[in-house]
Amino acid sequence: MISTSYQRRLPAHLIAGAFAFLAAASVTAATAPAKPLPKGVTLGPSVEGITEYRLANGLKVLLFPDSSRPTVTVNVTYLVGSRHENYGETGMAHLLEHLMFKGARKNRDITRQFADRGMDFNGTTSLDRTNYYEVFQAANDNLDWALQMEADRMTGSFIAQKDLDSEMTVVRNEYESGENSPSSVLVKRMESVAYDWHSYGRSTIGNRSDIENVRIANLQAFYRTYYQPDNAVLLVAGKFDPDATLARISRLFGVIPKPKRSLPAFWTVEPQQDGERSFAVRRQGDVQLVMLGYKVPSAIHDDSDVMAFASSILGDVPTGRLHKQLVETGKASQVFSYGQTGYAPGLQMIGAVVKKGEPIEPVRAALTEAVESFAATPPTEEEMARVRRLYENQMERSLNDPQQVGVALSETIALGDWRLFFTGRERIKTINAREVADVAQRYFRRDNRVTGTFVPEDAPQRATIPAAPSVASILEQFKPRAATLVSEDFDPTQANIMKRTQLTRAGGVKLALLPKKNRGETVTVDLRQHIGDEKNLFGTGAIPQLTGAMLTRGTGRFTREQLSDEFDRLKIVGSLSHFQTTREHLHDALRLVAHVLKEPAFPKAEFEQLQNQALVGLEASRGEPQAVAARALAEHFDTYPKGDVRHANTFDEDMAELKAAKVEDLADFHRRYYGSVPAELAIVGDFDAAAVVPLVDELFGKWKAQENVAPVLRRFETISPLKKTLDTPDKENGVYIARLNLDLNIDDPDYPALMLANYVFGEGGLRSRLMDRIRQKDGLSYGGGSQLDAGDLDRAGSFAISAIAAPQNLVKLDAAVREELARVLKDGFTAAELTGAKSGLMQQRIQTRADDGALATGWTAYLFRDRTYEWSRQFEDKLMAVTLVQLNAAFRKAIDPAKLSVVVAGDQQKAKPAP
């Protein structure tokens, strides 16, 4: 119920110790009680006068009799804190803590009863636990009442709407109080910036809107889930009779049924931070703050104990290093260092307070340098002895005060076992200076740092985001327009396409014109130009690609910006070679495209931008697994000399060609190589075919390049198999690519059967053989597939397989691919798979022809090869005629896994088996 205050104290992670040191604690065998244990109670371990018992319903009981003071402390720790809250429920664990004082079935006015008995009481909520305690005069009546009250409110609290209505405003006010504190606000922002996913990134107090709007049903469900005997530890410490008290506990708590529910599992692990982060809070205030946050291990990790030493050596006052470097030199008025840790990895917070108006940047720099250079100057023996003495004295005082023991044990109970309090004490004795320096070196690192500053500002420049209006209010005045957009029901069969298409010529341009009524009067244009031949393109390097990219960056009439505006005005979407516009704008769009193609200006400033972008993009791909693997495989299959347009460049060759390019080279290349005779042009959609032919003839029909134009063909080559692994450090994902060259042309008799076989094996999506294995069954990959390529004018075909996977799964992925290939070659595909492939491929092809863009692209491809959609119809007939025998025979003939070249790329450090 009270807010947490920070002071010079024993850090929770130090008193916790670590499970690894449990055996090192001074744990003694449990001694038998003076009387037989109550029914259903079992005896647990005992440490230095504290004895554990367990009830049949799962409740743990700790008894710590001590007659040195005439008081008793009763403390109940529930293993639930703010990290257990869900979306929209932040602050709920703390809000529930407040409601636990609002009464239960047998104790309807708990706070009044506390007052009548003069008891000191409270409740606190943290990241991992919530605890309730009362301290009172040792008397059987007081103890009886305290125990029955805790048993009553464990499962019988009202958690009522009327109490939420009143207590919400109280908690909200507690939230508001924290918002007044610069340090409190800075810590909240530190938590949220430091954590991407883990719930430690949410402040325990919660978000204001969640506090104000949380439903009572959510609170009740949270209460029923976590406030149960198997999720609680009851501690009684002070002056009491252990046997009688255990009997009372058994009677009062033992009747609570053991819950049937299972506690929710939590599996979120905060990923490694991959770079320094910084933020600023600007509010009205009278002080400046700078704070550093470093991710550190869980409080039950051994490094956490060691980090506590580093924290004290840095932040203690007046002996700490930061005090001497920053406070005594006048740079800062105050320094601090503490660990906010728990069951999961936490934060080490280190900071300084700076007087308003004084420069904060030098303090930030000095603070960062002092912390991150700590490992270079290991602690002295004097520093180690001082910290060890401080912690040992604090632990001794805690053990001498039953009330302090109860509160301190709540922290270690939340970590998993109360005995960690004692293992931490034993660990203190063995920590040495080298360990402290090593831990500082591991965690006080730039890329693990979050820097926050609180900057006082009288007029913060904030943006107020208004609430969204209701949808009903928006639609209230809406008056819909009458439907005016119409289209025809177009039949995408090859016969209808042939019937509807006009094939003609406009000068040197082959034309395919397919008018049809489209919604919105849209029309799609596809232009296929041809540039150079095998010989005259030799040695041109990056010039052809750069020339194409420069065309839309300015012309003789338009700047780049003006061109963009013109494209928008004419509703042109796409590129110069493939775009959509509307019937109204088609002629002007064709004129604009022709102008851009014929009259580029090649502005030098734009060229320098393009060149720089290309160089940066290429450099960025050097470490990308996909790019690295693809390039390595292409280089392996390359049989062409450097300078040939078919040559597979290395990274360095691409880089050199880009750097060597000059804007004058681009202008010269355009002048010599660009033209539209020969070319193929297809227009599909809402337009007047008769009107467009003379326009195409005017714009493109006579534009002939100076250089010769001829198809650049590839030759089939048998390439020896390769298996190569490439290291791409610091990449979470890896890539698998495999390839096999095929002597294959699209007119070959086996091509239809191979297309179907490839569909079944890897192109058919999640139900393909490949994806069914590597994703559905083995869970190795999110995406993958196979690809079949056949030459149209040559015989340079290939079969390829690709997939992504975590680096540690790439070996398994390769094995799975080979097993699936072997299974197909041995057992063959099934009749059902063949039927499914025919249906799937045919439906895909029909859907493709129903798309105007694909239809136009198909026409230019067919025109280039002197074919029509009649070839498509005949090919589909061949597809449907493939038999199961032909399917399997074709695949077995073409695919030999022994000849497959495989390249995998990934972080090889991550690929190593976990230790």
Sheet having the most strands: 7 strands, mixed
Strand content: 15-25%
Number of H- or I-type helical stretches: 34
Helix content: 40-55%
Q: Can you count the beta strands?
A: 23
User: What is the gyration radius calculated from CA atoms?
Assistant: 38 Å
What does this entry look like structurally?
There is one protein chain. It is built from 34 helices and 23 strands. By secondary structure, it is of the alpha+beta class. The strands form four sheets. The protein has a seven-stranded mixed beta sheet with strand order 1-2-3-7-4-6-5, with helices on both faces.
In a few lines, what is going on in this structure?
It contains 34 helices and 23 strands. With 915 residues, it is of the alpha+beta class.
List keywords for this structure.
915 residues; alpha+beta; seven-stranded mixed beta sheet; six-stranded mixed beta sheet; 23 strands; elongated; disordered N terminus
